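Sample 1 of the test manifest.
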Amino acid sequence: MLAINLTLYSASAVLVWNWVHFLLCLYRKSKFEGRRLLLESLAGLLLLSLFLILPGFLTDHQPLTSRAEIFGLYSWSILAVFLLLTRFNSLKSMGSLVLPVALLFLSLSFYQLSADSFSTQSEVTKNTPFWIHIFFIVVAYGSFTVTFLMAVGYLRSEHQLRAKSVDGFFFMLPSLEDLDGALQQSIWIGLGSLLSGILLAFLSGSLKGTLGTFWFLDPNVLGAIFTGVIYGTILFIRRRALFTNRRIAYLAISGFVFIGILFLSMNFLTQMHHFM
Amino acid sequence: MKLQATGLNHKTAPVDVREKLAFDREEIHPVLRQLDRAELIKEAVLLSTCNRTELYFLPGNKLQNPIDAVEVLCEFKDVPVEEIDPYLYEHDDLRAVEHCFEVAGSLNSMVIGETEILGQVKTAYDIAREGGFCGKFLHQLFQESFRIAKRIRNETHIHRLPTSVGSCAVALASQIFGDLSGHSALVVGGGDMSKQCLDHLTDEGISSVKVANRTLDKAEELAEKYDGSAHPLDDLEDLFDETDVLISSTGSEEPIIHRSHLEKAFAERGTKPIFIIDIAVPRDVDEDVRTHDNVYLYDIDSLEELGQQNLEYRKQAMDQAMEIVQEGVQQYEEWIKTQDMGPLIKELKQDVYQLVEKELREHFDKQQTSLNKSDLQLVAHRITNKLLDDPVNVIKEKAIEEETDSLSTVREMFDLESGLG
């Protein structure tokens, strides 16, 4: 338990410093130390990965089945998707926006961490590749969170450009093209993960047997499908150029808010297939 | 050490005076050699650009006044020194050091934060070094100035914010499109400002340039310069769908680019935006274009306003940059103080070595020992070095802290004559 906790504390410390470093670069408007910041984020990600992997090795606990781990995984997926996107887009200072969100969920992981966190074991989680399904679903929502953040960054930058009120910070934001590219790519990653998670749930055995009901009566399953439809529609609109990029960004933000409400209501309003 | 800096620049002298004392690369070695032969300099670096001519030097034995060195420069360029004298400035010691750092860090430039000056300072230093005119003091000074310039560049935003119309246009284009390679520009009309914008865009890697003009010959002339293609103005509507950056600068009295032109282009372009720079007065681009969601339209006033705003930001960054300069001056000062201790330390070591040699000689004369002489010498020298390590470090520390009483004590202790001048 101590080793597992230590990895979480270390990951948090590294990521908090990483965020402070981002903010210092912005405040001093100095040269963006992109490479160094990226390495710090990677170090935090690796430590967080250890936190997620170690319970499986050190205990009999089925991975990713406690709330502490789920929040940790959510934080991990936000960071991992963001770092993946930096390979294809120059995202400069966006880490200053992404990291606090990742840290928020990491703090929830802290809050949920207890002596029982790694002893939970249910019949449901024992018999199926449950944690793989959880992994993909959480990564999907992590991706959509990154989509939301890219959309926010896009709108801020776009607004300044249009209003001609550019300041020193404006030139530290990524270009509109990079933000738009990252927005699309994160939706693709999210949709791919969501589909994989849903398929794995179906393929891993009788869902009725696992959940005690038919899948089409399960709010979380329906919610996941609905989420896929929302983001799939956004991609379709983008591809067909039915909306401008600015409207697509608004749509992405609205979609995220909607699925957030959906997710919370499903977990608070029903006892079925929830983890909150 | 008494470093001097003297010269003239854009702040003190008009261009017709500055150009009289401007030196080509090939002239620098001969003039420095003259200064050296006249024993007016021990070390020197001559920096000559379109905006300044400055001489950084350590005075030689025969220099009584910095103007003596300037006289040699004037004589070389066949200019009466009286014509130059009213525009000269002189700095010495730490003020000369500070001035050198300010110049290298582009804090003294016509456009604060411009990037050319550092390269020019490096070239001046290289030329002096190749001619053997750079000793350890100027070597350290200029190496430190490069480090300070790099710190200013990295730690402040003094260089980063664009101030000219062309650089503002490119900065905005980069904020829309990111990497400009793979994107295309269309120039409608011509004119100096268009060329300035196009120069900056091509410097940043824009891959395709098209020029449209009422007169095809003029379009071809401009297009050839940028390895682009020329088109008549009648083809304008067909060019928009492949244009990412549009620079318009015609002499038309009425707008020539309307929203309807762009609607057709966007049917092909999808959601890809267009950045329009309307430099013309009266404007070439109709106001209704501005309302299109995929168009970012900037006119000449907006770009100039942005440039002015950024210039204000650069000036604010000056305070931060000056702090870095002051840190550099302090470090250079500390380094000089340790160098002044060089002769003292050298003399101390020589005295001790002589003492040891003498003792060993007397020993071997008396004892007639069969022990290996070179081994004993080696051991003795090692002991000497170890004995002197701590005192030498203390001497350096006291020099930095300016504890002259302690240093006097050391001199007295070892009956040494050299020390602070």
